[in-house]
Design brief:
Amidase signature (AS) enzymes; globular; eleven-stranded mixed beta sheet; 13 strands; single chain; alpha/beta; 465 residues
Length: 465
């Protein structure tokens, strides 16, 4: 069931929050050994929260539409009482976990049921989900494939029907990559729209945002999260935090860019995304194919990301670095070689890129691209077999630019490859125009779900069944 369906069932007393929590915990027990989406479960606490929600519903004192709805939490988000190990053997689990991130505080205020912590690569450094602590997380559509990352545990839990809602973070695509690879929905909001604390070591590249199986569910979660919190010095005020009601996209000007002028795209992905752009046009949008003329974002993004990795590794026990993911150690070493001038040069280029995208999206309402240029590939490797480069960001050219520009960017599923793997459509709007992203994503999803061809296989037909 979707989060919205659960909420309605609670209101009508057809189901209770305890029913949902018990069912999901049972499904996790059955299927998570194959998927490895969760790294921490606390069934007693989860069921206690569900019983408290049940009591509120019975007393007619519901806290709102998320009251009693289970939410999975990425293990980079601080949750009071639960460990935040961040996929690392070097994090001491035997400590008092007292800090609470703003997003978790908002979920508790809304009465949501915290289902568990989901897996991430070590400190969230890459676009896949495996780490030395919990091993490999797998894609429920094909267990030999990666779910992407770094919010791969959250996306896998959603795709496998083990959670209706999940929280993710995104510093270079970490919500959008796994959502695209698993046929789910994810939004990287305008930076600061969803407050996040403590701040990521990767700084102002990293956003927090909602993940779900439907646009409506992701939007429901977003409304709860998009509330000012003084813990985050970059948090935006509450005004206009709620998206406008979806009213269709007739008349919107849309730039459709299949390559951004420099990316190579798998032919099946290109065909599905081009068809999706046609759907937007059929809904009344004015779709204009072209490229924004911006440079490849990767040379700008990498120095900023590598400097963050260097900061992460500098805080670890130097005697135990052999226990850390070797890829993280490698990029941290590259970060250590950067000068202050290198960093400031990249920052200046970032500003130029953000200004360029701002100008483009003052003439267009939306920019749409593939979310990923390729479908999910084999687990346990940073790049696909035979790939010409070593680092994961080389296969994610469409995500990096919008972490640099801090614009809202969402992914929605737009079809399946012949191998049965999901493909995502990325929808980008100007900064602070999250409402346009929601409107277009909802309109597209509604149109595609009414189409003749299958674009999203039901969870009931998962290989896990």
């Amino acid at each position: 069931m979707t989060a919205a369906e659960l909420s309605d069932a609670y209101s009508s007393r057809e189901l209770s929050p305890r029913d949902a929590a018990e069912a999901l915990l049972a499904r996790i027990e059955t299927h998570d050994p194959a998927v490895n989406a969760f790294c921490h479960l606390d069934p007693d606490e989860t069921l206690a929260q569900a019983r408290a929600s049940e009591s509120r519903h019975l007393a007619g004192e519901s806290l709102g539409p998320l009251d009693g709805v289970p939410v999975a939490i990425k293990d980079l988000i601080a949750t009071r009482g639960w460990p935040m190990l961040r996929g690392s053997r070097l994090t001491d689990p035997n400590q008092e976990w007292i800090y609470e991130a703003p997003s978790i505080a908002r979920l508790r205020e809304a009465g949501a049921v915290l289902l568990g912590k989901t897996t991430t690569p070590e400190f969230g450094w890459k676009g896949l989900t495996d780490n030395p602590l919990t091993g490999i997380t797998r894609n429920p559509w094909n267990l030999s494939k990666t779910p992407g990352g770094s919010s791969g545990g959250s996306s896998a839990a959603l795709a496998a029907g083990m959670a209706p809602l999940a929280l993710g973070t995104d510093g270079g695509g970490s919500i959008r990559i796994p959502a695209a690879f698993t046929g789910t929905v994810g939004l990287k909001p305008t930076f600061g729209r969803v407050p996040s604390a403590p701040m990521s070591p990767f700084g102002t590249l990293a956003h927090a945002g909602p993940m779900a199986r439907t646009v409506a569910d992701a939007q429901l979660l977003f409304r709860t999260l998009a509330v000012y919190d003084a813990k985050d010095w970059t948090a935006l005020p509450d005004t206009a935090a709620d998206p406008e009601p979806a009213t269709g996209i007739a008349g919107l000007r849309v730039m459709f860019s299949l390559t951004l002028g420099y990316a190579e795209v798998d032919p099946e992905v290109a065909a599905l995304v081009t068809r999706a752009a046609g759907v937007l046009e059929s809904l009344g949008a004015q779709v204009i194919e072209g490229d924004p003329g911006t440079p490849d974002a990767r040379p700008i993004w990498e120095p900023l990301w590598y400097a963050g990795a260097a900061a992460v590794v500098a805080g670890l026990d130097p005697a135990r670095l052999d226990e850390v993911d070797p890829g993280l150690i490698e990029i941290a070493a590259a970060g250590n070689e950067l000068s202050a001038l290198d960093y400031m040069r990249a920052f200046s280029q970032r500003v130029d890129l953000a200004v360029a995208f701002g100008r483009i999206l003052s003439n267009f309402d939306l920019l749409v691209t593939p979310t990923m240029p390729i479908p999910a590939f084999e687990t346990g490797t940073e790049v696909p077999p035979g790939w010409p480069e070593r680092r994961w960001q080389s296969w994610s050219p469409f995500s990096l630019p919008f972490n640099l520009s801090q614009q809202p960017a969402a992914t929605v599923p737009c079809g399946l490859t012949k191998e049965g793997l999901p493909v995502g459509l990325q929808i980008v709007a100007g900064k602070h125009r999250d409402d346009l992203v929601w409107r277009s994503a909802a309109a597209y999803e509604a149109a595609r779900s009414q189409g003749d061809d299958v674009f999203m296989r039901p969870v009931a037909e998962s290989p896990l069944q």
